[in-house]
Amino acid sequence: MMPSSRMMPPVPVSPGRLEGCPAPAKLNLFLHITGRRPDGYHLLQTVFRLLDWGDTLDFAVRGDGGIHRTNPLADVPEEADLCVRAARALQQATNCPLGADITLYKHLPLGGGLGGGSSDAATTLMALDYLWGTRLGLARLCEIGITLGADIPFFLFGRDAFAEGIGEILQPVTLPPACYVVLAPGASIPTMRIFASPDLTRNTPPIRMPGFTFGQTRNDLQPVACKLFPEVLDALSWLGQFAPARMTGSGACVFALADSPEHAARIVGQCPAHWQAWQAASLERHPMRGLAS
Hints:
Strand 4, helix 1 and strand 5 form a beta-alpha-beta unit. The protein starts with 10 loop residues before the first strand and ends in a 12-residue tail after the last strand. The chain has helices at 82-94, 116-131, 138-146, 152-157, 191-195, 222-228, 230-239, 261-269; strands at 11-14, 17-36, 42-62, 67-69, 99-105, 161-164, 169-172, 179-184, 245-247, 254-258, 276-281. The strands form two sheets. Strands 1, 2, 3, 4, 5, 6 and 7 form a seven-stranded mixed β-sheet that branches. A four-stranded antiparallel β-sheet has the order 9-10-8-11, covered by helices on one side. It has a single domain, classed as Ribosomal Protein S5, domain 2 (2-Layer Sandwich). Residues 1-5 have low confidence and may be disordered. By secondary structure, the protein is of the alpha+beta class. 44% of the residues are buried.
C-alpha cells in the first residue's frame, strides 16, 4: 500500500455522485485509561490529531435503496465494513429510500490504530447526508456514529481535539503544524484483545487540558501491545533512534515527530524493507466538513 495524495475536498462529478472523498488518518498523541464504566467501556483521555494521509472513497446514489461496496477488500467482508454499516444506519435513521454504491480505496493498514475504519465511516455519513439530502447536521451524525465506533465522532468533529469519556466528549485544541513519521510493523492488532488484557492499566489519574506534554504522557495500551506483539516493540526501538516514538491508539502503528519534512523523508528512507513507513503532516480541518452543517 502506498499513501494517498494529500487530503483534498471531494469532487462533485455529477448530481448524485461524489469522488475522491477523503478519510484521513489520526494519531493519538497520548492515550490514558482513567477508568471503566459498568457496561465494560473504558474511560479515557487522549489528544486526537488529524493527518493529511488516508483512505479515499467514491459514492454514487442508487434509486433502489441498495447499499453496496463495489470493490473487494481483503479480510473485510462487505457486511462487516463500517462504511456499509454507517450508510445503513443513516438510511434507517432518516427513512431514506435512496441507496449508494461505495468504492473504498484502502491505504491505511488494518489494525494499525490510525482510525481507518472509523474515518471511512465518518466520511460515509457526511457524504451520504449530503448526497441523499437528509441534512441531519453534525450533532445527529455524531449520535449515529457513536453507535458504530467510539472514534467516529472525532472524525465528524473534524479537527484536533482533546477527548474524554469513551472518546465522544470532544474539545477543540490548537496545536502547531507538525510533520510525523508513521511506521507500520506488519501486525494487525484487534482492539478488543488489548482492552481485555488483565495487564492493562485502568487507573491513570485524569489530567487537565491544556498543558499536556509528550514527555509527561504515555499510551497506556502500549505495554500490553508490546507484550502481545513483539514487532511493535521492535518498531518503537528502531524509530526511537531518530526521535521519541510512541504507539498510536491500540496499535500496531508507531509514530515520531520529525523536525521537518526533510528529516521525515530521511527517516522513511532508512526504514527496513520488511516494514512500511510514511511521512505525514498534520491536517488543520477535515476536508469533508464543508458538506456537513
